[in-house]
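On to my pick:
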Amino acid sequence: MIISEKKPIINRELQNIMKNIPRIFVGDNVHENMELAAQNDTTHYLRRVMRTDNFLAFGGGREFNATLSPDGRRLVIGTQTAHTDPSGQVTLYFAPIKKTDDLINMATQMGVARFVPVITDRTTAHHINWARMQKIAIEAAEQSNRNSVPEIAQPVKFADLDLSKLAFADERAAHGHDLMTTADANSILVGPEGGFSDAEFAALDAGGARGISLGRTILRAELAAAVAVMKINK
């Protein structure tokens, strides 16, 4: 008797990942059967780098099969895939730092939905190229299998925050304070390289913000942001 060998069934999403099909953000208003003008860098990336005309287009929480037109001038959007957006609902409030690019990259990969820069007493990085930060967020979303790109809001002042709705990364845990290790929240605040000032700690405590511990060691600000995102329930 000959027993046929059963081949494993691999769903379409897994096949796409295994084939390393490129993913390209095309805007939040993408839908089936539309065509978009192809930017020169997109055409170069698909044909010269990836050597393919096929890709996955995404935006607004949805993903689509797509192709580059034969003349390389148009992105042709096809059918929507079954891939659901793994992004979360977390808003990350953060003080701009020297390595804001690393912070945006890591937190986007972790599914952060929105970034809000906060100017604190000890913020020293005041000249961030936010257009470049948005590009980094797009590239991180493409790489991390998201269907959406996080929003980067305009900077706000610490004094203007509604602290009652925030959790915050409390570095006082590194100096022996007994703090929660997680919080049920959708928004978290991380301070700058020098940490929060005494006045800001007093405001956070008085305003009802929930301090959570990131451990007993002092973390670099960009790493602290990534750990903080992991510490809140989404």
The helical segments are 12-18, 40-49, 100-109, 130-143, 198-207, 221-231.
